[in-house]
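Milestone 3.1: sequence recovery, worked example.
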């Protein structure tokens, strides 16, 4: 067993973590998250690798032939798919933030605040008294008035 793949996984994790902590751009932040997530892929593949072992297909393989662990391969594939979905979601949030605020700087939180008085008040949630019933809305008025 080699030390090198574990060192690569730790290096990728630290580089991605450093990039996330020091990032001043939402796109850069997402890319650093992808780098950090790829370190888990490298770690899982390192754990599942066995020297001289074959694929875990047992159709025409004699008994006693070494094979790699299929669970680790399935976990790695799941990690890649979930990482792609999270990356897509975060990039779409970054695009919408840029459209609304005109910046990708995560420190510029001023434009993200709610400026609509209906949304900021209890009127939007339906918690204001209803003229018909004389009591709280209780959820029937979920649409802004």
């Amino acid at each position: 067993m080699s030390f090198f793949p574990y060192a690569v996984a730790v290096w990728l994790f630290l580089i991605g973590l450093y990039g996330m902590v020091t990032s001043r751009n939402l796109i850069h932040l997402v890319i650093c998250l992808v780098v950090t997530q790829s370190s888990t892929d490298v770690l899982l593949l390192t754990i599942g690798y066995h020297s001289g072992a074959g694929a875990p297909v047992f159709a025409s393989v004699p008994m006693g032939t070494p094979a790699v662990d299929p669970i680790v391969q399935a976990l790695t594939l799941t990690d890649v798919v979930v990482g792609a979905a999270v990356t897509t979601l975060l990039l779409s949030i970054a695009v919408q933030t840029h459209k609304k605020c005109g910046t990708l700087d995560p420190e510029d939180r001023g434009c993200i605040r709610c400026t609509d008085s209906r949304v900021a008040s209890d009127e939007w949630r339906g918690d204001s008294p209803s003229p018909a019933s004389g009591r709280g809305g209780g959820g029937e008025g979920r649409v802004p008035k």
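The chain has a mean pLDDT of 79. The domain at 4-55+67-107 is CATH 1.10.287.3510 (Helix Hairpins).
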